[in-house]
Structure formats: C-alpha cells, structure tokens
C-alpha cells in the first residue's frame, strides 16, 4: 500500500455535525468549541451554515458564531453557502471559504434544496463566481455519490458529469459524499478509478459517514490511490436532515488515530481534539460515537 506522508483533515463538526441535532447548542458554546478546535492544529474548520434558518434552525446563529470565534492564522474557516444572500452573510462574517452543495441524485436534490439539479447548477455557478470576485476560496459538496436514500444506486456517469461541471466552474476542491454511509472499499476504488484519470487527486476530498461502520475502511483504498483530503467530524457528530437513517460522519479522532498509527502526519494534536469532543458531548447531552472518545473518557 502507498501511504502519503501527510493528510489534510477537514473538520465539519460545527456545521455538518450540529445541523441535525435537536438539542440547541448556545451560541457562546459553539464559539468556545470552535476555538478549542482551532487550538488543535486543524487546517480547516467548517464553522456554520448560511442556509435559511427555516431549514437548518440549529445554525440560525451562524453570523454571530462566525463573528465571535478567535481565529488561527493557520486555519481556513469555511461555511455552507446556498445562494447570494448566504454569500453576503458569509462575507460579513469573515469566512475564508464558501462551500456550495449539490446532490448527485435528482430526488435527494429536490428534497435538500427544493430545486432540480440543472436549476441548482445555474444558481451555484453564480455563487461561485461571486465568491471568487470576493477573493474567497470555494468548495463544492457532491452528495449521494455512493448511494441515495430514495434512488439507491447513482449512475457513475452522473457523478462524472456533475464533477466535471463543478470543477469547470472553478471550485478549489470537490468533496464527494457518502451521504447515507453505504459505501464499501471496492465501491470507493471503482468511483476513484473512474474519476482520477479525468481529475487530479488534489482536487478531490472524500466525505464518509459511518452509518454502517465502514468509514475507516473506505479511507484506506482512497489513501492508496492518492487522496489526501478527508472530511471528518468531532466526536462523530453528524447526519443529513434529508437522508433518513444517516448516522454521523467519520469521527475526527478515529481517523487521526488511524492515520498517525500508520505513520501519516495530520499536523493535529489528538489529545486536544479528544478534549474538544468530550466538551461538546456534554453540551449536546448524549454519548457520541467516536471510539477514541469513548476510550479517552475511561482513562
């Protein structure tokens, strides 16, 4: 197996982790948690979403959070931006990177953003262009790449087509999402064997959910094929509001422990990450699925 020397971990817990939680986390607690994550050496933290509060009420304080955090000069602070209004708020909040999102399956896209894919593409094209004019980095999430809760398998041709569209728009990174946690290592290899001859591995990140306990296994073949950017969530928080049964993301602590044991540098402090995960677990009031967090709490 070919192991990279360094992997970039993209922490999405404050956004993707909290968006599906029924328990309200106070604004000051969100800020404290993000500040704790900033002190771990993470190169990327997705701090909030500027989707309308009607759809994501758990993040209705996004602008206050973005303005309230203490920033590390070595960390990119990102936010989910659905449209021009969201982009304006992201710019006001001092966000470094605007993240747009699109589903690979038509049904999930309709439920997620209430628009057909082709109409969503046109909206995202405008948002990405205006983000670049504002000197923001851009990132695109392509959801349901490895399976859809409504359509099941998504044709690889659709994934290729939408990946080409998003990268041709000029996004700096394309994150391919296993929204329902259905992927397996062979499927990961098949998707990457199709995409990597067309796109550089440096343009692609992978976003695995751990619904069926396969997220770590899916990272292994991706590493071997040259992918060095992975989305993870503190404590394993997360889930998609429009993917019934979707469990949390790959836990940041579990991924980093595995990578470091493999001799792969992540530039992060695992003990500080565990402390941050334990802290937010108490605020949410329920046990989080991170295996390393559970081991940490028994010490």
Automatic annotation (TrEMBL):
Keyword terms of this UniProt record: Lyase, Metal-binding
MF terms in GO: hydroxymethylglutaryl-CoA lyase activity; metal ion binding
Pfam family, one: HMGL-like
A GO biological process held by the record: ketone body biosynthetic process
Domain Pyruvate carboxyltransferase: residue ranges: 7-274
The UniProt record lists the keyword Magnesium: no
Cross-referenced InterPro entries: Aldolase_TIM (IPR013785), HMGL (IPR043594), PYR_CT (IPR000891)
Family assignment from sequence similarity: Belongs to the HMG-CoA lyase family.
PANTHER family: HYDROXYMETHYLGLUTARYL-COA LYASE (PTHR42738:SF7)
Protein name: Hydroxymethylglutaryl-CoA lyase
């Amino acid at each position: 197996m070919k192991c990279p020397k360094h992997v970039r971990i993209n922490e999405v817990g404050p956004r993707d982790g909290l968006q599906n939680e029924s328990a309200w986390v106070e604004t000051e607690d969100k800020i404290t948690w993000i500040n704790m994550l900033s002190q771990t050496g993470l190169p990327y933290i997705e701090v909030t979403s500027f989707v309308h509060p009607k759809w994501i009420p758990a993040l209705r304080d996004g602008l206050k959070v973005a303005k309230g955090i203490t920033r590390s000069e070595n960390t990119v602070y990102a936010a989910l931006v659905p449209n021009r209004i969201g982009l304006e708020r992201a710019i006001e909040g001092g966000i470094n990177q605007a993240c747009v999102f699109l589903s690979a399956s038509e049904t999930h896209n309709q439920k997620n953003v209430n628009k057909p894919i082709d109409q969503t593409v046109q909206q995202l094209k405008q948002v990405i262009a205006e983000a670049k004019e504002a000197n923001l980095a851009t990132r695109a999430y392509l959801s349901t790449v490895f399976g859809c809760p409504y359509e099941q398998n998504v044709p690889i041709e659709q994934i290729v087509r939408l990946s080409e569209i998003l990268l041709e728009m000029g996004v700096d990174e394309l994150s391919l999402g296993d929204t329902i946690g259905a992927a397996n290592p062979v499927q990961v290899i098949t998707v990457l064997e199709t995409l990597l001859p067309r796109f550089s591995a440096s343009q692609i990140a992978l976003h695995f959910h751990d619904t069926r306990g396969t997220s770590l296994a899916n990272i292994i073949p991706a590493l071997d094929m040259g992918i060095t950017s992975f989305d993870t969530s503190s404590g394993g928080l997360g889930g998609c509001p429009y993917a019934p049964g979707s469990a949390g993301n790959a836990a940041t602590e579990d991924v980093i422990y595995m990578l470091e044991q493999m001799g792969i540098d992540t530039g992060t402090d695992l003990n500080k990450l565990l402390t941050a995960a334990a802290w937010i677990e108490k605020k949410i009031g329920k046990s989080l699925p991170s295996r390393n967090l559970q081991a940490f709490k028994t010490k």
